[in-house]
Amino acid sequence: RPESCNGLPYTKGAYMTQEQSARLLPQKPSRWGKILLNRKVPILLFFLLELAFLVFSYLSLQEHFPSIILWEHLLSVFTFFYLLNRSMDSRSKLSWMIIIALFPIFGTALLYFSLADLGVRRLKKRLEDATVQASDHLSTNPEVADYLSQSDRQLQKLAYFLEHSPAQFPIYRNTEVTYFPLGDDMLPALLEDLKKAESYIFMEYFIIDEGIMWGEILTILEEKAKAGLDVRVMFDGMNEMTTLSYDYIERLHKVGIKAQAFSPVKPVLSTYYNYRDHRKITVIDGQVAYTGGVNIADEYVNKRERFGHWKDTALRLDGSAVQTLKALFLTMWTVTGIEDKTDVEYYLQEKPQQRKSQGFVLPYGNSPLTYHKVAENVYLHLLNTSTNYVYIMTPYLILDDELVRAMTFAARRGVDVRIIMPGIPDKQYAFDIATTYFKALLEAGVRIFRYTPGFAHAKVYVSDAKQAVVGTINTDYRSLYQNFEDGIYLYKNLEVIKIEQDFEKTQALSEEVTLESLSKMPMAHRLGGYLFSLIGPLM
Length: 539
Known about the structure:
By secondary structure, the chain is α/β, with parallel strands linked by helices. Helices cover 48% and strands 18% of the residues. The strands form four sheets. Strands 7, 12, 13, 14, 15, 17, 18, 19 and 20 form a nine-stranded mixed sheet that branches. Helix 11 (212-226) links the parallel strand 4 (200-205) and strand 5. Residues 1-14 and 26-37 have low confidence and may be disordered.
């Protein structure tokens, strides 16, 4: 943590000017005031009251209807048959069955509630409508399509799949790509591009936290908003529970910045909250865009130390492919708020200027509600089409059957499969779950490394010096099944070589995991991993 910023002691908001601080930071409340104003307290209280009501209702049923145990067993059997015939990943089915076997009524009620939640249905309907509207402005250039059909059938198949997904993600040429091996490298370039903005700035991030990074960005955003630019900031609603004050959106509005939160948590039980906006997107004037693993918080650019050195990655796009990231932002902005649909039409009718560049760029999004498993299928494509190697960086590793088979089959057919994970995990339980897959992967020939200096938060796949993915998508159930995500698939682009080189440099700083070292793991972590893995797909 730095000693000071702009001559001020480093505390929350100290990076701001006095004027900024007065506008964006609440007055410091008393001890009891903090408790009363903390949104976690009433929300947790209401959740507990709702759960208490359910428990009380169940106990009352047991008291007045002793035969309820028989009905519980019948309900469990019926629900098991229902699960077996649903199109759901087998590990997710197993997790649900375990919960229902232990808590038949609660487990079954939770399952059906998650499937029939009105909040989720409304979200899905809004998302479908917005996706259709945005898709009308996304299409592959006919010249690119003709080239692929004649020269690269492998890439054409992937491009066909993504363009025929519900969101219609086209493949582009004419886009300059810059790879950043650290958030530290990305931040100066991002600040410079923000300063050059002339029309609008769109930012969508999973986490925004007060500190040096956000302070520098916020200063520019305020100046641009005062100059009349359309400045929009969107963040996941969990920020209001963790990093930002509950009225932060109103505070941003006061300085001219449009702001929204996706799915803010309210004191009402709903499976709606299980879907989070995990994307990290900046779009500037529809011409330049950024994405990757880097959130807007100081640890991501190593201005603050959490879990050792923070290893992350990002991409900068300049050119045609920015159109898809702009569409993803506007789609989510429309879904989250009540914006006029002509707003989307206005911005998507504008096309980025083309830049001469080598190779192809294919941006795409992942949604748990409308274009399910797009991200996983892209990862499977890399694993299944590789001939020499597949290198992977991911902070979390919670795999379904398809990914386990793809990784082990690739290794067994002679492909060099390597995975880099954190040396210092941010969530011990998540890393313990990951270790339950290590034995099968190692025995198949997959090599696993732990980034010794700290936390590897990068989400990278690179294969055969010709294809790579950089984005927000972890190799776990939450990213692949439950979050809104985005990624950039690169093919025969010069930056792919830089991504490979970065992986090798990162591996040189990492310690290899072996079957012997795995057997020496503390028993508590090994048992914890197996216990948590039973419900890992639902976490």
